[in-house]
Amino acid sequence: MSSDWELLEEIKHQVELKSGLTNGQDWTQKDYDFLSFYIQEQTGCRLSVSTLKRIWTNQYHRLPHISTLDALTQVAFTTNWKHLKAERLSGNGSTGRTPKSRRKYKLKPNIKKIVVAGLLLLPLILIFYSMQEVLTKAQNDPAEVDFSYQKTVENELPNTVVFTYDIEGLKAEHFFLQQSWDRSRRVEIFKGTSERTDIYYIPGYFTAKLIADEQIIKETPVHVTYEDWFIAIRQPMSNIITFGKEHWLAEDYLALDKEKIGAKGIDINQKFQQAFYQVRDFELDGDNLSHTTTFRMAPLEAVDCPMISIHIQGVTGYYWVMLGSKGCASELSVIVGDRQHNGKTEDLTMLGTNMYAWNDVEIRTQDKNVVVQLNGETVFTTSYVESVGPVMEISYFFDGIGMLDNVELQDQNGDVVFSDDFTVAPEQE
Length: 429
What we know:
This protein is of the alpha+beta class and about 425 residues long.
């Protein structure tokens, strides 16, 4: 029924509002990751990123499974799909009673005139409001808005950043400053002010946003660098817990002490995301590079599908390469520049492996042609058009406890621009 599809669109819109994410057509992988964790926190039901992508990009020919509909409806309207649908049908006049015969009423002449006048004025009213929207957008011209920042420290965390802006000429009810893709990092700002400080707790190459109501007026890149590896865990996605070197394992690879993870308040019996960051200007062309690393994961009862996402962030684009256990290949995806590959609609089973053993992975790109090798075997190839730009960050996201070793970046000539084999164990307090 068309009403089912209309109701699903209404639910999607409400989920966007509740989660703080808008304009689902422009979402990145991180936005979908956040939404997946958000829905799980609200309902206890985990919807995979690939399922959410399929729903929000309308890549389906039939309604999603009832459990998926129930989870989305619970977030949007705190009820389930069946009850919401029944309410909507009831509101449209379906009362379950036999309809009584209706008397025919004739409109009085004066009422007829009012109705006719209203119908004649309706197009003018619609044109007026359309013009108002156009004028508002024109008044909110990004070219006329100043938006910049200044970091207070270099290569240190936390890092307080001072944003400077001029919103006096903008028209909106509310204004916001959002430090990255993460909606939970949004703060309200007000006319009559020109500065706002905000703290970055993790390193990265972020895109800060100046927002009027829900319109992004202007964006600026914020490169928060760090002098060494940085490790953080999200549980839930809006809550960031960081780990210093005193929490690292004294091994010839990079990992966290499992007991110290629990001591910081992380429940390893519940889902969480662990991230390793190396953020700096690598002075490396993102369209011509070789990236290699070795990884493995520790088995956890709470993780059915252990996965790693390898993230290489450039100035204008990024790599997002997912690897996982063989039985979970449907949940994997690959994004490089403007090219996306979804494990639900493409065969990505070659990206599956034993996640509990050490794996060697290489991502090699020449003139925007990408080859992924896993344990010495080519498992995936693709290409893209829009440039990634200079590399500013490499990071690794594990759905659980992960370990890294032998990280290396080379340029197109084979020269090493970054390398770490973690042979020197970090000092312990």
